[in-house]
Amino acid sequence: MQKFQSIKGFLFDLDGVITDTSIYHEMAWHQLADQLNIPWQAAFAEQLKGISREASLAVILDSTGKHVDYSEADKVAMATAKNDNYLKLLQQLTPDSIAPGIEALLVELKQAGYAIGLASASKNAPIVLERLGLSDYFEARVDPATLKNGKPAPEIFERCAALLGLQPTECIGVEDAQSGIEAINAAGAISVGIGSKEVLTKAQICFEQTQALTLENIRNAFH
Ligand code: BG6
Ligand code: MG
């Protein structure tokens, strides 16, 4: 692991880190699965974190084991239906929905001179940040529509570091998804997981809760 002193920037995932929208994604997919008469599986909750809308739909459709050849138009309609469900749920978001400790961390990082970037797979990220009132903290944001490969590929974290003018090795990535932790590790950044150590087994540093995400705790976790 590189030294804490070499860190110059932080690359944040959004859903499940900055706010708990991962539960809204899950609810919106669950609603779609019900409409399609596809049985919901408990394992979807973790599997769908971090991966794109299209990849998520593929996981759900593949789970039936029927391998029906849906047309592109059918798949677009299904993904759009899920997103409509999701957008309705997002209407509940306010600055009170910011995960505990996150705004304090962003303030602390800004004051300490760290660069801050957003590495979210969500095309709804601008709406979410706007509703939370956090848009101004992020000096760089990756547009997921421009990526060839989603998480667990390292591309999104590599791009985010480059947009900040940094090497990935000079950055810490913060993630709640296994796919995201793998992407951070593959990029060569330091991975900080938010959630259970049993799930985020590949995280170099892991905190159960966002409250624990302080600069001091992160610095102390380096070895
Ligand atoms: C990620 C979520 O942040 O964004 C995934 O963890 C989601 O669950 C992905 O599928 C894409 O989001 P969106 O908003 O573009 O459908
Ligand atoms: Mg996430």
TrEMBL record:
Site (Important for catalytic activity and assists the phosphoryl transfer reaction to Asp8 by balancing charge and orienting the reacting groups): S120, K151
GO molecular function: beta-phosphoglucomutase activity; magnesium ion binding; sugar-phosphatase activity
Cofactor descriptive note: Binds 2 magnesium ions per subunit.
Swiss-Prot/TrEMBL keywords: Magnesium, Metal-binding
Entry binding sites for Mg(2+): D13, D15, E175, D176
Signal peptide, first to last residue: none
Keyword match Repressor: no
Matching Pfam families: Hydrolase
Superkingdom assignment: Bacteria
Active-site feature positions: D13, D15
Family recorded in the similarity comment: Belongs to the HAD-like hydrolase superfamily. CbbY/CbbZ/Gph/YieH family.
Protein name: Beta-phosphoglucomutase
